[in-house]
Amino acid sequence: MQFDYVIVGGGSAGSVLAARLSEDPKVTVCLLEAGGRGDSLLVRMPAAVVAMLPGKPLKVNNWCFETTPQPGLNGRRGYQPRGKTLGGSSAINAMLYVRGQKQDYDGWAQAGCAGWDWDSVLPYFKRSENNMRGEDALHGAQGPLQVSNQKEPRPVTRAFIDAATQLQHHETQDFNRGDNEGVGLYQVTQFHDPAKNGERCSAAAAYLHPVMDRPNLTVITHAHATGLLFDGTRATGVTYRKKGKGPDIALHAQAEVLLCAGALKSPQLLQLSGIGAPKDLAAHGIPLRHALPGVGQNLQDHLDFTLAYRSRDTDNFGIGVIGSARLLRHLWRWRRDGVSMAATPFAEGAAFLKTAPDLERPDIQLHFTIALVEDHARKLHYGYGYSCHICKLRPESRGTVGLHSADPLDMPSIDPGFLSDPRDMQTMIAGARMTRDILEAPALAPYRHKEMFGTDTAQTDADWDAHIRDRADTIYHPVGTCKMGTDPLAVVDPQLRVHGIQGLRVVDASVMPTLVSGNTNAPTIMIAEKAAELIIGDRKTVA
Fold first, then answer.
1. Catalytic residue, candidates 376, 381, 477, 499
2. What's the whole-number average pLDDT of the chain?
3. Candidates 3.40.50.1860, 3.10.450.30, 3.30.410.40, 3.90.850.10; correct CATH number of 151-185+303-392+419-471?
4. CA 308 from chain center: how many Å?
5. CB 283 within 8 A of CB 32
6. Is the pLDDT of residue 326 over 90?
7. Where do the domains of the chain lie?
8. 1-68+84-132+204-299+479-543 falls under which CATH superfamily?
9. 430: number of CA atoms within 13 Å, CB side?
10. What does the pLDDT average to over 6-12?
11. Alpha helices, DSSP H only, in 374-520?
12. Does the active-site annotation cover 290?
């Protein structure tokens, strides 16, 4: 089968590209996705993420990857949930709409990525956005992605905000204006129109599902990409296996192949296809097609450490008779009008703070969660409570994504290198101390019963160090493994074209040169919006 464009991966970036490129009826587009349609009730109901994220007892819409043993985490293997469905990780995330900081993007441009500074990318954030607060100089209201205020945040979340302000952290209403310092409520990627009010607005629900009947758009689900096809140094197509079985099926691209498989799968597919560091490929008997030493390098992720408190308040998520009966009423209200606790993102409260007053900008992010959270909700606790996640926004540690084997159905080898740079631990300890002070502030006293993991005010830095290494793990923001730039480790140029290969681009979070100071879904959608314009512009130039 032959198309103008073949897109590998129907996640946040792939959904955007498929929708934008197929707006031209003269262009044929094929989208491959290893998972399903991403429109089940589990995806649409925000609170149902607890059935997908843990990967237990079943893997639902989730790759459920693991890392290599991490020396910085006492040899533990980390858990890496990633979305396996149309919409990708936007179908299983907490829906938080966060762009990062102005300096993140200005730093990309200063490092050689022309056209990716804050002022240049802002129009693409606005183009994607349908914000319920309306349009202004920094926000859009006409885009496909519905961005909403939270439907019914819990009173304990308000107490968290008040606790932070009692410690002189200022409250903010908008974390997406270039400077995200402050404490408040996250906005979420959630429908606010009457027809779907309160449902998750994944990238697929926003961009792809409404246009899947276009005659020039072919979407193939349960299609696991196995390799790229070439004519010399030009990418000409993709091979895939339906449901991971049977012979490989070939799809041919007349114009371009667009790799949107994410920061963990995109470098894997390049390596399987002979693009990468020669020594890495030779170790698995893969013939070298093009040497690009940066493929799979530069992995960055937000390491996350969680504090939790038990509470006698049952007006949040937990395991118990009273709360369970109340939850049934919340589910009924959500089905009726889209509000109630069933619409929660769980991580309701936000904070971007400086661990030292002389810092130019915030260096930690907090996610205040209306449940007791341990080990990605894979370890459950009877009763009720609340948690607060702490992560360093701009980690110094770097990792890699490689191959376990030459089998395209094997998972990638993921080594985030957590805490391999000692500066990261220093910030994590400072952030943990600040967060515990907030959680011990008077405003939370009516909800606070017992600290869950045994932290106290007498802990030394050494105590915090040991505690963090015992319990920390990802908060799901891997990026950078096909970095954009012009340096020797760059994989794509500022137009997202793979260096040395024609007809091939990478469009996903893997192209970020450095990790943004916040959640990565909104920036990934922005990258795809900009990429679509670049691709359309190149097509017009050729024509």
1. 477
2. 97
3. 3.30.410.40
4. 23
5. no
6. no
7. 1-68+84-132+204-299+479-543, 151-185+303-392+419-471
8. FAD/NAD(P)-binding domain (3.50.50.60)
9. 16
10. 98
11. 422-439, 461-471
12. no
